[in-house]
Amino acid sequence: MESSSFLPEDYLKLPEQPGVYKYFNEEMALIYVGKAKNLRKRVSSYFNKNTGVNLKTRRMIKEIRKIEITMVNTELDALLLENNLIKKSQPKYNILLRDDKTYPYLLVTKENFPRIFQTRRMIPKRGTYFGPFASVKAMNNVLDLIRELFTIRTCKLDLSPYKIAEEKYKVCLEYHIGNCQGPCVGKQAEEDYNKDVAQAKHILRGNLGAAKAYFKQEMQNHAENLNFELAQKLKDKLDLLEKYQAKSLVASPSIKNLDVCTLVTDDKSGFVNYMRVKDGSLITSKNVEVKKRLDEPDEQLLLTALIRLQDQFQSDADEVLLNIELSEEIEGLNVFTPKIGDKKKLIELSLKNALYYKKEKALLKGLNEDKKDRVIRQLQSDLSLPEIPDHIECFDNSNIQGTNPVASMVCFLNGKPAVKEYRHYHIKTVVGPDDFASMKEVVGRRYKRLHEEGKPMPKLVVIDGGKGQLSSAVEALKELGIYGQMPIIGIAKRLEEIYFPGDQYPIHIDKKSESLRLIQRIRDEAHRFAITFHRKIRSRNAFGTELTAIPNIGKTTADQLLSHFKSVKKIKEAPKSEIISVIGKSRGEQLWDWMEKNKGAN
């Protein structure tokens, strides 16, 4: 592979070779990765077209400041490289595969008398991993089958030859009930044990035919040697394996090793079903949502999902069935869109799964939206508000023993936190711990600014506190001349009582009401946000005070150290060279000498 860099205006200098292209923005951040059969033709298409280019693509093109390419031998190599780069960097304009689950694997350990067990962490040096399994139930079925067919140990003993020879172990219950042949005490040779492990690996790969052939051959050998009891045991195991295969049979056993991948779409997403079939048996089925970024065509969505899923599930398929015909062949990728027969039935089965997944996602989205709308409508009813409170802001103060008074404002839109709208406030005009005056200051500052900037006011203002804090907030709104333009309430912590301005008595909302839980959630979020900010300020001030007490260390130097090390503990643990690199040789040495002198003083 050969890599090169180009400026956007040099796209005509690109080679006419298959490869991968990467787009970088002004900050040299990777924003898009694509693959191409012909790099010059593909990249040129972004810059030459004046019509038919969607808004998102135009926005991306405006951001491009540098192009990097990597040439490969085939288009399939380009697809695989593109997949690896997207997985590693997750550029913002690339298709997003929505799948945040971690899937289990079965591990065959690399040790004397290997074990087989479930894990979700891949550490390659531990052994060979099989999976991932999209269904824990399916994985347990395979593991149960292996434990019925073979006597694989489950203990964690170190079965090194010298430890077995030293007779360090005794057989356990698993031996007595027939689940283990006692390799720990030399009752089973490692060579015989490893034959079982080899057959277990065939089953884990979905290659049931090899395991069936092994049992059939062993059964015949024992029968010829007149060991009819052992031959019967092997026949029972062969029957068990055939029953397992029959349960998972979805097509003719003549269909040996293929993947099926189908796609259905809506305006924003694609819904993909991926299946792996071996010897006519379904060994993996997985649904994923593919989030569109640049209004990509269905063919691109399907190919991207296929390559990533084959990578994830370590596919070794000889053939891939798709429900969409590709516009051109990809060398090295054996793709087929069947029209009749068993393979067509597999496509139909996969499509049925993809359509069901799409319907399920739409239903779930609708339920979530209905619940969100229901809660804020219930809040409107409970508080007799003139409008649906789809924009709520909540204020809270924080000071401990009167130090570092701060306040917070959190914003919820449509019943959900709008974190970008959250605000912190340093109290500027109030001396000492005065919650009422502090509340008046921050409410006045917030809505004076919104009023001057002509921004929309909230549909509900929530004050964390009782009558006193609420009255202070009302004063601020009256001084701004906007009181009455938006509803305002206070929530008292002790009994979760809701106060309206001017009302002597609070109103009580049912403790089980979703609308009260929403107000509590908003109030708790404002409190958390204020407390977090207060702790940060206290820590900064304590840090600065301790440092500025050192000779020749002033506020500017203390701020430099704070910005770099974040805490007193970290600066005390830092090497001398790092301290000098931050504040210079003279001050760095003075600070280091002072810390050495005062070690253990605290």
From TrEMBL:
Interacts with UvrB in an incision complex. Residues 16-95 form the GIY-YIG domain. Signal peptide: none annotated. This is UvrABC system protein C. The UvrABC repair system catalyzes the recognition and processing of DNA lesions. UvrC both incises the 5' and 3' sides of the lesion. The N-terminal half is responsible for the 3' incision and the C-terminal half is responsible for the 5' incision. PROSITE patterns: GIY_YIG (PS50164), UVRC (PS50165). The gene is uvrC. Keywords: Cytoplasm, DNA damage, DNA excision, DNA repair, Excision nuclease, SOS response. Belongs to the UvrC family. Pfam families: GIY-YIG (PF01541), UVR (PF02151), UvrC_RNaseH (PF22920), UvrC_RNaseH_dom (PF08459). Coiled coil: none annotated. It is found in: Cytoplasm. Transmembrane segments: none annotated. Residues 317-477 form the UvrC family homology region profile domain.
